[in-house]
Design brief:
Shape: globular
Largest sheet: 5 strands, parallel
Mean pLDDT: 88
Distance between the termini: 29 Å
Strand order of the largest sheet: 3-2-1-4-5
CATH class: Alpha Beta
Strand content: 5-15%
Oligomer: single chain
Number of domains: 1
Order of helices and strands: EHHEHEHHEEHH
Radius of gyration: 18 Å
Low-confidence stretches: none
CATH architecture: 3-Layer(aba) Sandwich
């Protein structure tokens, strides 16, 4: 299984979309109604292209997951034309005791993604050997993943999987191409590039 950890704001909408929507979308059209006005149809089609060309599933890492379920987000995505299957939500992680001076401090999104991979995907990144990576890849439910997000709070070990979308434009054709390329690569080719 291949997975997209999906943020929404800054990925499937953008400053460009909000300006375009204000200037070009008729107020009585369906695109002016919630939830459609929050999703740029061009970015949705780019996401759909990634899903079609890689057969990946979606794990929602966006703040839109707050108070939602897999089912409610699937219904929302179906409504706005996203063709992918939502299979999970990353947790909201907070520091707690024994780190009393940090109690209540929110963990970076990369930690939440790492937790999901550990607990649902049996995913392991091996830094010391192609052969060991191949062994772990055979045991893992998640064979590859990408992170689509406009924020940068990811972990160093996620660097080959992270695609940062620019807030002014959101998900572009070039970034969709990059996502497809990453998801369709074997992990050993992604991690162990020939020198």
């Amino acid at each position: 299984m291949k997975v997209i950890f999906l943020d929404i704001d800054g990925v499937l909408n953008s400053q460009d979309w909000y300006v375009y929507r204000r200037d070009a979308v008729e107020m009585d059209s369906i695109n002016a109604q919630y939830p459609f006005y929050e999703f740029d149809p061009r970015a949705v089609e780019r996401l759909n292209r990634i899903i079609r060309e890689t057969e990946c599933k979606i794990v929602v890492s966006s703040s839109w997951r707050s108070g939602e379920t897999i089912e409610s987000l699937q219904k929302l995505f179906d409504q706005v034309g996203i063709i992918g299957e939502v299979i999970g939500l990353t947790p909201h992680l907070w520091c707690t005791k024994p780190y009393e001076d940090m109690d209540g401090y929110r963990m970076p999104r990369g930690c939440e993604i790492d937790w999901w991979l550990d607990n649902h995907g049996d995913f392991q990144r091996i830094n010391w050997s192609k052969e060991e990576q191949i062994k772990y890849e055979g045991k893992s439910k998640v064979k590859n993943y990408i992170i689509l997000d406009d924020d940068s709070d990811m972990l160093y070990g996620q660097r080959e999987h992270f695609i940062k979308t620019p807030n002014p434009t959101g998900l572009t054709d070039e970034l969709a191409d990059q996502a497809i390329e990453i998801l369709n690569k074997a992990l050993v080719d992604l991690y162990y590039k020939e020198q």
